[in-house]
Design brief:
The chain is α+β, with helices and mostly antiparallel strands. It contains four helices and eleven strands. Strands 4-1-2-3-11-10-9-5 form an eight-stranded mixed sheet. Strands 6-7-8 form a three-stranded antiparallel sheet, with no helix packed on it.
């Protein structure tokens, strides 16, 4: 996990969320690990000491002037609406399309589920991962039915990325228009090749 990439993401968004993952023992509750993100994606901070707001500001070299432009939010527990477990009975494996597309300045990774339903996430949220080929992406839904993607390496959860939702009427119409234009270009190319074979 590239911690510097996580730093760049939260700084660019101007929002740092720090979440404590608590474990209940027989006599006490302890913080087992922390997660950090920008509200749209979260990553475990394995191998780091437990952080506070002050510790994050020092580590990210955020002085008082820069602090005015950043919202810092620290939750003492993980949100109950989101599954932070490695495994979930509702996990649905997603398959990426080998195509790049940019919508409103956001470069998207297009994914499909077993029913060929389109799901999009922003590619920038995969930059903290060193070996993208090792990643497995699964669709999950939070308690409100909002879709997010569980990013795993093997069976271990390494990140949570909320779905980017461009699938409004304009998006569907634009993709449809691109499909129609591509189909026409392909038909013309096939006709040209057929005509050349006759000569």
């Amino acid at each position: 996990m590239k911690f510097k990439a996580i730093e760049r993401l939260v700084k660019a968004e101007g929002y740092i969320a720090l979440l404590d993952e608590r474990v209940e023992g027989e006599e006490s509750v302890t913080v087992a690990r922390q997660w950090m993100g920008d509200g749209r994606a979260f990553y475990p901070l394995d191998g780091l000491p437990m952080l506070t707001e002050e510790g994050v500001l020092v580590m990210f070299d955020i002085d008082a002037k820069k602090r005015e432009k950043i919202v810092f939010h620290h939750e003492a527990q993980l949100p109950e609406s989101v599954c932070f477990a490695d495994l979930s009975d509702e996990d649905v494996l997603l398959e990426p399309y080998d195509i790049k597309i940019t919508v409103n300045g956001a470069e998207l990774l297009l994914l499909k589920d077993e029913a060929d339903k389109l799901i999009c996430i922003q590619r920038k949220y995969l930059t903290p991962f060193e070996k993208l080929k090792e990643l497995e992406l699964y669709r999950r839904r939070d308690a409100n039915g909002v879709e997010y993607v569980a990013v795993k390496i093997g069976c271990i959860l390494r990140g949570i990325v909320y779905v980017y939702a461009p699938a409004d009427d304009k998006f569907v119409e634009t993709v449809g228009a691109i499909y129609n234009a591509a189909a026409l270009a392909l038909a013309d190319e096939k006709a040209r090749r057929t005509e050349q074979m006759r000569i």
